[in-house]
Amino acid sequence: MQLSLLLLASDRPAAAQLAQALAAPGHGVTVVTSAADLLAAAPRYSLVVIDGVPAGTTAAAVIAELRGAGAGPVTPVLAIAQTADLEERIALLEADADDVLTRPFDPAELAARVEALALRAQHASLPGSRSRATEPGRRVIAVFSPKGGVGTTTIATNLALIAAERQPGATLLMDLDLSFGQVASHLNLTPRQTILELARDVAAQRDPELLRTYAIHHTGSLQVLAAPPGPGFTSLVTPQHVEQIVSAAADAYETVIIDAGTALDERAMTVFGRCDTTIIPVIPEIPALNSVHIMFEQLADLGTMGGSILFVLNRAFARDLLKRNDIESALGAKIAAELPYDPLVYLKAVNEGVPVVLGSSRSVPAERLRALADVVLGPVSGAAPAPAPKERRGLFGRR
Ligand SMILES: Nc1ncnc2c1ncn2[C@@H]1O[C@H](COP(=O)(O)OP(=O)(O)O)[C@@H](O)[C@H]1O
Ligand SMILES: [Mg+2]
User: Quick check: CB of 229 below 6 Å from ligand 1?
Assistant: First the structure.
C-alpha cells in the first residue's frame, strides 16, 4: 500500500533522516516545520507523523487542534518519542497520539507501525465495520487470584493454548494484569503492540476486525493481547477501556481467556461482569486461603463475580498438611481440579517461555491441565462445560 505521509519536525537534519526512512517502502512524504502548515495540510494525507514540535507549542496542543479541526475522517497520528523516557511516552499518549514509537527504532518497525495505523484508519471509515452482537457459544473465561505466585498466569496461558489447539485462530489470551503482566514472558513473546495501544484506538475497541490487528500470533493458532510494558502505564487503561476491549474481544473470538491478575479494582469488577467463568487458583497455604477469604468479604461490598466460579487447587503435594477436604471446607466450595506441585517441569516452562502443555506435553502436570480444560471448555467433542460449584456461603466457616 502506498501512502501519503505528512511529517512535522522541528529539527531539520533529524527530519531528513526520518523522511527518508518513512519514504523507503514507497510512501510519499511531505515535511512541514510549523504547526499551522501541519493543520492546513493534514486532511489531505493518510497519516501524520510528529517528530518534535516547534518551540512555543506542545505535541498535545497540536494533536488537540488537529482533532478539533474538523469535518471528515480524522487523520491518524504517529508520534515519535525522542527518548526511552516513560514520562515522554505517557505524555504523547495522553496527548491522544494514536501510536508512539520511541527512538532509536528499527526502520522495519517504523514501516510496520505506519502501515498498521493507516490500515486501521481505512477500515474504521468503511461502512458496516462495527461490532456484532455476542453470539451464543462464545465464552469469556477469567483467571484471577487475590495473591500473586499461585499459578494465575500459568493456568491462563496453558488453558489458552489448549483452547487454541481445539479452535485454531479463534482463541484470544488477554493479559489484564496491567502492572506486571507476565503472559508475554510465559510465552516468550516480545510484543510490538499491547493493550495500551489498543486503549488509544477507539475504533478498534468497537470493531472486532480492528481489534484483531492488535493481537500477536503465538504458534500460529493462539492470539495474544499483551499487557502494557510496565506499571507506569496502568492508569492509561481505564475500566471503560477494559469494558469495551473485553466486549469487542468476545465478538472477535470464540474463546477469550483473561489473565485478570491480582488487583481487585474496578477493572477486575468490569471483567467479572463480562465473564462466563472465573477460575480462582488456590494453593494449600493458610495465607493464600486467607486472601481468598478477604477477597470474598470485599466482593460483598463491591459486587459479585459473574458466571460460575471454579476453584483450582494448584501446587498440590502428596504430603501437604492442608488436605483437599480441609481446603474445600474452608472455601465452602468444591475444588474443580487439582494441579500437582512439580518444580522441574514448571521451572523449565517459565525459563524457556514454553508452557507445560507444549514443552512437556506428556507430563502429569500437562495431563492435569488438559483435564482442567475439559472442565472449563467442555470435553473435546465441544459439549457444554460442566456446571461449576457456585456455593460460597461456608467460606472459612470452620476456621
Ligand atoms: N503446580 C506448580 N508446581 C510448581 N511450580 C509452579 C506450579 N504452578 C506454578 N508454578 C510456578 O510458580 C511461579 C508463579 O506462577 P505464575 O503462574 O506466574 O503465578 P501468578 O500469575 O499467580 O503470579 C512460576 O514460576 C510458575 O512456573
Ligand atoms: Mg501472573
Answer: no
Task: Indicate which residue's Cα is closest to atom 23 of ligand 1.
Answer: 149
Name the residue of 145, 152, 154 to mutate for ligand 1: max ligand atoms within 8 A of Cβ. Answer: 154
What's the 108 CA to ligand 2 centre distance in angstroms? 31
Tens of pLDDT, residue by residue over 59-88, are 888 888 888 765 445 788 999 988 888 888
For residue range 313-353, what is the model confidence (pLDDT) as tens digits? 999 887 888 889 999 988 888 999 999 999 999 999 999 99
Q: In what order do the strands lie in the sheet with 335-340?
A: 216-218, 222-225, 171-175, 255-259, 139-143, 277-282, 308-316, 335-340
Which grid cell is 236? 492509561
pLDDT in the model for residue 398: 34
Closest atom of ligand 1 to 316 CA is 1
Domains belonging to the chain, first-starting first, are 4-124 (3.40.50.2300), 139-377 (3.40.50.300)
Say what the pLDDT of residue 137 is. Answer: 63
Ligand nearest to the CA of 157: 1
Please give the C-alpha separations between residue 215 and each of 172, 223, 251, 369, in angstroms, as whole numbers. 8, 6, 14, 24
Q: Which atom of ligand 1 is closest in space to residue 147's alpha carbon?
A: 22
